[in-house]
């Protein structure tokens, strides 16, 4: 792990941010500075490298789907979680509802909005948002995570599409009553404010099979972590997941706040901030950085040069 390589990756990616645009469909996100880039790499051996805007707080957005899935697996078990949510990449945009209309079609996976809203409905009945926030702090090794009230309000006032998805899911019997409570829970999880460092912390806990790297405390069951990492690999980058898996080969999850969480199994966690997004909603800088690091450090899952 050489600092110089991370610096080169950030420099190269900074030149590419002009190819993307910050998300504007949640007005509060439109205020972000698209030229920002930061990367943190936390290794299992205790090394920590941070370059660029790694302490800037931004909303976790869809990366919260990883935390919600993990907690739902712990609280409800595998069979119940996957009763009303699938495990397949959708090939559609994260907020698409087109396939939901088909008879017997459950949301494709827990990483798209429809699937995450089903997961939120399981959670909202079992655990308070405050408890989820505490769990997020401990999984991200970041005691300073809070709810970004501005993002939360901004998203709630532009919630029509997610509300439509949620009521369609209710009409099909995939989520139980109190759709509004479930939507608030989902949006609050998306509005947690994190940094690139928090995401590297979460990546490290997942790379370490759910064990806190410093205290040795088990935070998540091994089976939970295995499921989460597999779903990240196949579905974590929305409808860009296939191409990302081929080119980068690192289980990752992106969010429209500009974050990417990546897990190099048994080795390290990587957290990225780069709010300029491509047309699929993935951080442009993040993609470049991960491709660069994957090539330099042979991080692709199937790279046999390791
Ligand atoms: N809060 C966003 C939404 O529900 C999260 C989407 C994302 O990060 N892709 O639309």
Can you walk me through this structure?
With 306 residues, the chain is α+β, with helices and mostly antiparallel strands. It folds into 2 domains: 3-61 and 193-297, 3-Layer(aba) Sandwich (Beta-lactamase), CATH 3.40.710.10; 62-190, Beta-lactamase (3-Layer(aba) Sandwich). The protein has 12 helices and 8 strands. The chain has helices at residues 3-14, 64-76, 78-81, 113-124, 129-139, 149-156, 160-171, 179-190, 196-207, 222-235, 241-247, 284-297, and strands at residues 38-43, 48-52, 58-59, 146-147, 192-194, 252-254, 259-264, 268-273. The strands form 2 sheets. A 5-stranded antiparallel beta sheet has the order 2-1-8-7-6. Strands 3-5-4 form a 3-stranded antiparallel beta sheet. Strand 7 (259-264) and strand 8 form a beta hairpin. Helix 1 packs antiparallel against helix 12 and helix 2 packs across helix 4. The longest helix has 14 residues, at 222-235. The radius of gyration is 18 Å and the shape is globular. The mean pLDDT is 95. It binds glutamine. Glutamine is lined by residues 61-62, 94-95, 113, 155, 162, 190, 255-256, 281.
């Amino acid at each position: 792990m050489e600092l110089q390589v991370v610096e080169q990756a950030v420099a190269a990616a900074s030149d590419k941010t002009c190819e993307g645009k910050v998300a504007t469909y949640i007005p509060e996100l439109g205020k972000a500075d698209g030229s920002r880039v930061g990367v943190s790499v936390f290794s299992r051996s205790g090394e920590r490298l941070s370059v660029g805007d790694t302490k800037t707080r931004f909303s976790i957005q869809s990366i919260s789907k990883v935390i919600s899935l993990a907690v739902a697996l712990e609280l409800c078990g595998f069979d119940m979680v996957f009763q009303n949510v699938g495990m397949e990449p959708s090939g559609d945009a994260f907020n698409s509802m087109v396939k939901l209309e088909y008879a017997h079609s459950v949301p494709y996976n827990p990483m798209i909005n429809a699937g995450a809203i089903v997961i939120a409905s399981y959670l909202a009945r079992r655990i308070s948002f405050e408890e989820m926030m505490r769990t997020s702090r401990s999984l991200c090794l970041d005691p300073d995570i809070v709810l970004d009230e501005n993002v939360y309000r901004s998203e709630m006032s532009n919630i029509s599409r997610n509300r439509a998805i949620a009521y369609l899911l209710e009409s099909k019997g995939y989520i139980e009553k109190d759709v509004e409570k479930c939507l608030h829970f989902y949006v609050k999880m998306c509005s947690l404010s994190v940094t690139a460092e928090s995401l590297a912390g979460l990546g490290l806990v997942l790379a370490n099979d759910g064990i806190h790297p410093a205290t040795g405390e088990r935070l998540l069951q091994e089976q939970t972590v295995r499921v989460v990492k597999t779903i990240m690999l196949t579905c974590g980058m929305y409808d860009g997941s296939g191409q990302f898996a081929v080119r980068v080969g690192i289980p990752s999850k992106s969010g429209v706040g500009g974050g990417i969480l990546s897990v190099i199994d048994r080795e390290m966690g990587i957290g990225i901030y780069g709010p300029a997004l491509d047309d699929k909603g993935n951080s442009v800088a993040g993609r470049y950085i991960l491709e660069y690091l994957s090539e330099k450090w042979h991080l692709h899952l199937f790279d046999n040069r390791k």
